[in-house]
């Protein structure tokens, strides 16, 4: 079924308040708050050479594709294309946090040292903490994590067990002063992280919270187009600490993960069963011993992984030491049980590239791609091809699809190479012949598959994808 | 015309995948990524007492309404309700930046001192700059502004006059180590700011850019529900520096602004004429001298204002000293002309409250309100009223309207006071009698006007508002 037939399509084109503003940076029209970007005016500084310190493929590709600018060792600024990916990841992470009822807050990046002295971690944290003195010579730090700060918020405002369970999360910049920052945004010093903190009345409730986050993380990574393996990070006895690291599979990963092959099937089922999944064997190489491995070798998969998430139950550790107490149902005060839950949002940009690229460049999963469609106008000086290209991008934008229009005065080969390098999932190629035949080429970046189609069929295809 | 008639409304209710999860923090259903919040499970720590340092009304109300948590002097964390307002402002600021073709980037908060030594501002900036040494004893700082950093990005990546004009902007946390932080988020140390930077080939082009930002700022503040007066900040000769501060009118403002009363009419016209508007008399009190004032007294208005924006043209100051050069159309390298443009995003939350409150609390302009509608269920234990309340909030959410449902076990007076304090624009009051008569009360927070209406009429009203 063609949802948007020719008649309707033409009506939409007529209805649009299309604007061509040569003096501005963008040829755009606005519909549903979406803008069409014209590549000749877009700030996309592609690089042929990559910095000497870019050792891994994601780091090189992020520079070559104009996603980031290096400000200092381990400190990056995000350029428009990279920021679109970062924000897509952020949006998906937030949606999945909101879905399970967590509350979105934003804590300051700068924290007073007092809070960390109270928790006992100020000295323990070592040189990775960026320590700061303000103009009055008082001690502050750039938050590497926020257990202390969130405990301070909750102890100030929470009074009763009736306000529990409570789960506060944020997506905020953090700083860890790595001795040797490397791998670009994968191990940077300033990085964007989602960190969440839970407060529960007792262990049973805390365990339910932990399980709900565990399932939510798997959903989050799946939506990002990734396969994530939750690896037990601490083998404490039941009733003690619970902790899992989430490793996404990438051939170039730093870690090696040994895991039960039944895992992938279970993780992709509609309802993730925590008990079933977390009981499966999954460990990092240093914990794997063939002699004691509980599952037969033919059931074992060995793959490379990148850590992108970490969840951790730590009971009353911070609520006790920082004096967080609320009144229980029996009228007596008690220390809530806590856990913390992190996802490396900026790290994920690099990790996704490690998991999804080829020799031509990045292959973005659709959910995080900076644009879904790139229209490549091969003629560019011809009114007829531009008119076709414009018609198409108006129709796609009206469907809420992000489009980048390559109107640069470049050879076809350069345009194809750019589209491949920056990893846009679909390329629509409009050439001289298109204006005669009415056909354009639709190329799928991931498979390389090319189909000749009419504009109507392309619109039909993307309409189907949406529904 | 009732866009959503009874039949359709009931269909929507049936279609919804409504979920009641007592174990989660939110009774919600999802449609268009919108969630309905249940106040009994929302993290809204209302305060009866306000901190001793809260001298001005916005600071007191932000604490009382549970918008922020004070982490340290001049350093605040944003709680859920406050963060919703902050993000609404951020969204509007971004939309207006995107509309004029500016490119969205995100620079790091931490900058190397080297860049500021290069520009000559490292020593000049004084104690307001938060200076930091990393573990290798290298000098860094928490960016108070970003002229140096953006110039570094542009000199690295821009080669030709063909890439101009270019305008890069970001919304990012900044730090200024104020000697006496006060007025809550209005003069905090860590704050969220939109800062933009323009690069042009020559003065004529830079002037056009400046004018376009000037007009864009007026549109932005108007959309935020504010009246902003652009006050000339520097009276340099034509061809020299151009600079305007944007003062929003608030009875409790710090500044006193003297301005031509024709201003408000011109600023609210559909097409803002820069030349006409910027030629009108508007100065701060220290520059106003009745003896030399060029306009007659009966044409002069005197009002209190709060500075929320500042735009500044500074020519080749940074491009020269930092060696930013691009090739001109004549093949010769030249230094681009620059300007910078700031809006105090977190400051605006306080400023809007100063401009819009009464003795009962905050009166949010609709565009920035954390929720547009608050449903007040006076019975709460009664299935019939809850069913009416739920029906209504499902319908409103399906229209993309944010709703907070007060299901707390509190007296009506407490519920009314909360709704007034936190400033939600519309309150819908569902009482015992509503289930018999089919009528609920719709109260407008700003005017206090109350109307009895059916649910259908409320839905009709909000549908009309949208179109």
In the CATH hierarchy, the third-tier topology of the largest domain in chain A is known as BirA Bifunctional Protein, domain 2
Shape of chain A: globular
> Which segments of chain A are poorly predicted (pLDDT under 50) over 5 or more consecutive residues?
1-34, 235-239
Number of strands of chain A: 24
What is the CATH superfamily label of the largest domain in chain A?
Bira Bifunctional Protein, Domain 2
**Which two protein chains have the largest interface (Cβ within 8 Å of the partner's Cβ), and how many residues from each?**
A-B, 67 and 67 residues
Number of helices of chain A: 15
Question: Which percent range fits the helix content of chain A?
Answer: 25-40%
The number of domains of chain A is 2
> What kind of sheet is the major sheet of chain A?
9 strands, mixed
Describe this structure in words.
The structure is a homodimer of 467-residue chains. Helix content of chain A is 32%, strand content 27%. In chain A, α2 (57-64) packs across α11 (345-355) and α3 (80-99) packs across α11. The longest helix of chain A is centred in the middle third of the chain and has 21 residues, at 203-223. In chain A, strands 4, 8, 9, 10, 11, 12, 13, 14 and 17 form a nine-stranded mixed beta sheet that branches. Chain A has helices spanning 6-15, 57-64, 80-99, 113-119, 121-124, 147-157, 203-223, 262-267, 274-278, 317-321, 345-355, 383-398, 412-421, 434-437, 455-466; strands at residues 37-38, 68-72, 75-78, 103-104, 110-112, 130-133, 139-142, 166-175, 190-200, 228-232, 242-249, 255-260, 282-284, 300-315, 326-327, 333-334, 337-344, 357-358, 361-362, 373-377, 403-406, 426-430, 439-444, 450-454. Chain A has two domains: 6-53 and 371-466, Rossmann fold (3-Layer(aba) Sandwich), CATH 3.40.50; 77-358, 2-Layer Sandwich (BirA Bifunctional Protein, domain 2), CATH 3.30.930. By secondary structure, chain A is an alpha+beta fold. At the A-B interface, β2, β3, α3, β4 and β5 of A face β2, β3, α3, β4 and β5 of B. Chains A, B: Catalyzes the attachment of proline to tRNA(Pro) in a two-step reaction: proline is first activated by ATP to form Pro-AMP and then transferred to the acceptor end of tRNA(Pro). Chains A, B: It is found in: Cytoplasm.
């Amino acid at each position: 079924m063609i949802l948007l037939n020719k008649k309707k399509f033409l009506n939409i084109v007529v209805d649009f308040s299309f604007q061509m503003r040569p003096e501005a940076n963008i040829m755009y029209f606005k519909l549903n708050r979406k803008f069409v970007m014209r590549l000749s005016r877009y700030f996309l500084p592609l690089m042929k050479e990559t910095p000497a310190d870019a050792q891994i493929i994601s780091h090189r590709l992020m520079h070559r594709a104009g996603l980031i600018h290096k400000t200092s060792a381990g400190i990056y600024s995000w350029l428009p294309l990279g920021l679109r990916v970062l924000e897509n990841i952020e949006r998906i992470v937030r949606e999945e946090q909101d879905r399970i009822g967590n509350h979105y807050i934003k804590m300051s990046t700068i924290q007073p040292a007092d809070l960390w002295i109270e928790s006992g971690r100020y000295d323990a944290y070592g040189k990775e903490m960026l320590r700061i003195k303000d103009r009055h010579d008082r001690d502050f730090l750039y938050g590497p994590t926020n257990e202390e700060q969130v405990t301070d918020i909750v102890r100030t405002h929470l009074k009763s067990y009736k306000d529990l369970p409570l789960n506060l999360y944020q997506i905020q910049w953090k700083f860890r002063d790595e001795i040797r920052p490397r791998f670009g945004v994968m191990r940077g010093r300033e990085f964007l992280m989602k960190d969440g903190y839970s407060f529960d009345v007792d262990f049973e409730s805390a365990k339910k919270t932990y399980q709900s986050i565990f399932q939510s993380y798997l959903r989050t990574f799946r939506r990002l187009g990734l396969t994530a393996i939750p690896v037990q990070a601490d083998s404490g006895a039941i009733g003690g600490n619970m902790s899992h690291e989430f490793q996404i599979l990438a051939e170039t990963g730093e870690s090696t993960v040994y895991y039960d092959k039944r895992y992938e099937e279970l993780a992709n089922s509609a309802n993730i069963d925590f008990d079933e999944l977390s009981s499966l064997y999954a460990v990092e190489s240093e914990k794997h011993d063939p002699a004691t491995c509980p599952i037969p070798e033919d059931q074992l998969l060995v793959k490379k992984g990148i850590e992108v998430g970490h969840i951790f139950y730590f009971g009353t550790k911070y609520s006790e030491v920082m004096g967080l107490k609320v009144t229980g149902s029996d009228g007596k005060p008690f220390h809530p049980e806590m856990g913390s839950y992190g996802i490396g949002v900026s790290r994920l940009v690099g990790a996704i590239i490690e998991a999804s690229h080829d020799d031509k460049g990045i292959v973005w999963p659709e959910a995080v791609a900076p644009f879904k469609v790139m229209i490549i106008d091969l003629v560019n000086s011809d009114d007829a091809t531009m008119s076709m290209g414009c018609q198409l991008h108006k129709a796609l934008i009206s469907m809420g699809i992000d489009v980048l229009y390559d109107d640069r005065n470049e050879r076809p080969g350069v345009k194809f190479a750019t589209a491949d390098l920056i990893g846009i999932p679909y390329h629509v190629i409009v050439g001289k012949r298109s204006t005669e035949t009415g056909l354009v080429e639709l190329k799928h970046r991931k498979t390389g598959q090319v189909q000749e189609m009419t504009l109507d069929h392309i619109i039909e295809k993307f309409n189907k994808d949406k529904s």
